Amino acid sequence: MTGAQAMIKALEMEGVDTIFGLPGGAILPTFDALYDSKQIKFILVRHEQGASHMADGYGRATGKPGVCLVTSGPAATNTVTGLATAFMDSAPMVCITGQVATTAIGSDAFQEADVCGITRPVTKHNYLIRDVRDIVRTVREAFYIARTGRPGPVLIDFPVNISRQTVEFEWPEEVHIRGYEIPSKGDKAQIQKAAELIKDSKRPVLYVGGGAVGSGANKEIFDFVEKTGIPITTTVLGLGIFPEDHPDSLRMLGMHGTVYANYSVQRSDLLIAVGARFDDRVTGNIEKFCPHAKIIHIDIDPASISKTVKVDVSIVGDVRHVMKDLNKIVSDKRQDITAWTDQIAEWKKKHPLKYKDSGDVIRQEYAIAKIGEVTKHKAVVTTGVGQHQMWAAQWYKFKAPRSMLTSGGLGTMGYGLPAAIGAQLGRPKETVVCIDGDGSVQMTICELTTAAYYKIPVKLFIMDNEYHGMVRQWQQLFYNNRLSGSVLGPSNPDFLKLAESHGVKALRCDKKDDVVPTIQKALEHDGPVLVHMVVAKEDNVYPMVPSGHALDQVMDMA
Amino acid sequence: MKHIISALVENHSGVLARVSGLISGRGFNIDSLAVGETQDPDVSRMTIVTTGDDRVVEQIIKQLGKLIDVIKVVDISEDEIIDRELVLAKISANPATRNDIMQIVNTFRAKVVDVNPKSLTIEVTGSESKVDAMLELLLPFGILEVVRTGLVAISRRAELAAPEKITAKTTRFSAGDEKPKAGKEKKKAAAGKKAIGDDWY
Ligand SMILES: Cc1ncc(C[n+]2csc(CCOP(=O)(O)OP(=O)(O)O)c2C)c(N)n1
Ligand SMILES: [Mg+2]
What we know:
The complex is a heterodimer. Chain A is of the alpha/beta class. Chain A folds into three domains: 3-164, 3-Layer(aba) Sandwich (Rossmann fold); 188-350, TPP-binding domain (Rossmann fold, 3-Layer(aba) Sandwich), CATH 3.40.50.1220; 364-534, Thiamin diphosphate (ThDP)-binding fold, Pyr/PP domains (Rossmann fold), CATH 3.40.50. In chain A, 37% of the residues lie in helices and 16% in strands. In chain A, helix 3 (48-62) crosses helix 18, helix 9 (188-200) crosses helix 14 and helix 16 crosses helix 17 (387-395). The N and C termini of chain A lie far apart (69 Å). By secondary structure, chain B is an alpha+beta fold. Chain B has helices at 15-25, 54-66, 95-107, 128-138, and strands at 2-10, 32-37, 43-51, 70-75, 81-92, 111-115, 119-126, 143-148, 152-155. In chain B, strands 5, 6, 7, 8 and 9 form a five-stranded antiparallel β-sheet that branches. In chain B, a hairpin with a 3-residue loop joins strand 6 and strand 7 (119-126). The chains are: A alpha/beta, B alpha+beta. At the A-B interface, helix 7 of A face helix 1, helix 2 and strand 4 of B. Thiamine diphosphate (TPP) binds next to helix 17, helix 19 and helix 21 of chain A.
């Protein structure tokens, strides 16, 4: 068979059922081979950035690497944002890019780009295939690396001449990568030390991030909290790992986290970090971060440990395994922490999440809370980046793991719609909702066509505040309200007509009373829907810890 | 503090770019980097000299360890090591100064490898401190050009051989299949021992 056929067959052997992509010269042989695949459904996108976010959304929603397939040069560079997004948030994905013939590499050939060079800092690993006999092994390694350890995107650059050469298909049962190590079980002695710290702690807090979601540790986390009564806060990527309506949930921490989560972390004497990496949006001023606490850090990535904060006990291992082992030895005879939990209960009462609800205007907080209620907090939610993203994190109330897909690390506007499409294809029976901003959505809005053509029933809610709202908020607070480049209203398109021209059902909602019926209508429709939600224009997201401040230096709504 | 990092890496194209890109991309400083093939033609050895506090060096090692093409990486600064650097130096010379220069060259067991009416080219091998000491003595004569290889170092302990090729096994390909794998065990540097190699006098 040809190299291209070997590539497609290897993808089939890896269990790939969906590929997102767009063809072009250097990848044509592979597209030709794909044409014969009965197993793989091909989704033609409108822009390769969309394909990369779809693969990412598929990967985050299922835990299986999502796959995108594009041509060389400009197509490959179009995936860079998607790769960087997936890399920052440890999403499993495999991206295959066409490349000019090996004989032309380095000659500035037509549509040539040094894709391995360009993507090196934004991939977990990348490959340039130089020999047709390496194709199958490379695919195996790429999938293995993408989904194991700390997951991430892997890129395979596939020169066109190699895809045309012939090769005998040979499936290696085993793959050996001597430079790749995956910690699994944590060190026993370290786990014991952690248990001791937990036993002696009077004010413990559990701080959980996306690593716990990726490792599938929701049950172990839940058991730990049930057993110990230790309050739990999550990062934006950790949302859904633990039901947010549980009394021990402190909800999200960080810049726009709850006041009580941030107070708890700052006053704690023990912080148990699980699959989280102390991002600056989470810690605020790192010098002033949890000043009284000892820190236990459990993570599969040794390089995450002691990167920005010094920890007292580090456990390198798969979060799920480590938590399971920790649960076995965490003592019942611990310090009494009721004084602590009482204090937290008081903070919760005194500083709940709140918003101004007045008149007919739709507040995003209200609309998002209602989306949560109507979908029973069980939908897969994707977002863009900005105020709507933070409000989605605050108000949806997540209860299920892998239900919040958002660009936390890179903060990529335009992630929401394509990620929703990818997630929907990965989990076809479930409700997928994209809560997007009027700014963010326009970055990848062309993928509406993709949703319409393949009848992918994502529900897109555009929270139209006629601004780059988060930018406007910072300008109002820190730049004398000089709205440089943040005004969108006068130039926004007619979203309803836009949807209709793409063949997508469109609904408009501009009154508070219509919010619930509109959401219901959207969810009932069997197909993609765009809801143009006209919302309050100049609201700000609170609580807010301005950057450079300690987590308990919070600005909150009066 | 100065650290010497020794890494075994896959000997194929792009690996040097990965390592140096990682180091510059994360804002680490390196003083020197020397690469060459090992006894196994599939494996190269990189010796990286860097200055930084322990936290920074720990990050460099951990980040390098994450690169798939890095088979093994160790900080050998605390080890019993032999470290050497090769230096070629062109020194301004005339009949009046030539003898003095030769004397310095002999003391350091260096070699004169080229003679010109106006200069001498000297080859010297040794630890960094030896090389630095010699260059300092030669400074007054006028150093026209210096070419240094950067440090290479070898530990006196058991060799940091590349593990067998077979360190990983993948036999399933379902989601969430994470099998632990052997290999690339990071040996802790033997503590307490000073670097030697200052045995040139
Ligand atoms: C690709 C990209 N460009 C720019 C930014 C900077 N940025 C962050 S939030 C934001 C505004 C987003 O506007 P919108 O999507 O309407 O969300 P809102 O804040 O109004 O809810 C911008 C421009 C970004 N995060 N990503
Ligand atoms: Mg907006």
